[in-house]
Amino acid sequence: MSQAKAVDVSYVIYQVDDLDRMQKFMQDFGLVTAGRDTDRLYMRGSGPAPYSHVSERGAENRFLGGGIRVSSREDLDTLAAFEGSSPVEAIDAPGGGLRVRMHTPDGVRIDALWGQEVSTLPLRAPNPFNAGAVKDRINSSLRPKREAGLVLRLGHFVLRVPHHSETVAWFQERFGMVASDYLCAGSQENVVGTFMRVDLGATPVDHHAILITRAANVGVHHCSFEMQDLDAVMGAHDYLSDQGHFLVCGVGRHLLGSQIYDYWSDPFGFRVEHYTDGDVVTSEHVPSHFVGTADQTTQWGMRPPPEFFD
């Protein structure tokens, strides 16, 4: 069966019992309200996606799934032909467009999207950086602020599923996603996590759009949003702390993907990450097999607490 071509991740979806609390936190985190009604809240970054974080009102606080943008209208027809998929349907949300709704082998909702209206929000340029051997800032000083800043886009989300291999195959077969790196326990043969990216050939893309990890229960480990630069991450770090939000861990730098990271807890206990300076790769990238402990995936900075890896 033919497959669709994923272009990028677009949004994550949560169910929560208080939209006001989620909206306040996400505004402090650097997202902008794109739309809201009685039962749904849509938050966006500066990038072209009409929204990057969706909250649906419900009695139970839980992760529902995510959205993936595909390359063509024909891709939606391809995905609709898979068993268990919805037909192609109109999206009743900011930006409109069309979607096909599917579920992974463990029941995680994944929406394939095409045809949404796109727009961008004003965003400051990256601050020039004076490295030891290269000085890009001359006769000019920096005055970054402690502020929420503005998120660029959803960069990735991390699924926790009992059926790791089946879920990896599901994203490969439907969206043409490929592995960037593998997390292994004990030996290279025991793969417990797969970093997956979209495949745009020679065009550089993020090291991963989804990380799939083996776990006893279905859920999400975190969702992650890109920031413009280190000053944006650090300014937001101080601002979120001043607002009384709970820091999970950070600032630090990851090993796989290289991102400078900062993790916070939203009001419902879900982890959300700011990151900057992540790896981008092309089809020439060769996946590695990382065999080691979870805390060895932090190169420098605040080490995640033990429960971070539960």
What this model shows, in words?
The chain is built from four helices and 20 strands. The chain has helices at residues 19-29, 73-80, 164-175, 230-242, and strands at residues 6-16, 32-36, 40-44, 53-57, 62-70, 89-90, 98-103, 109-114, 153-161, 178-184, 191-197, 205-206, 210-214, 219-226, 246-254, 260-265, 271-276, 280-281, 288-291, 298-301. The strands form three sheets. The chain has a ten-stranded mixed β-sheet, covered by helices on one side. An eight-stranded mixed β-sheet has the order 2-3-4-1-5-8-7-6, with helices on one face. A hairpin with a 5-residue loop joins β16 (260-265) and β17. It is globular, with a radius of gyration of 19 Å. It starts with 5 loop residues before the first strand and ends in a 9-residue tail after the last strand. The model has no long low-confidence stretch (mean pLDDT 96).
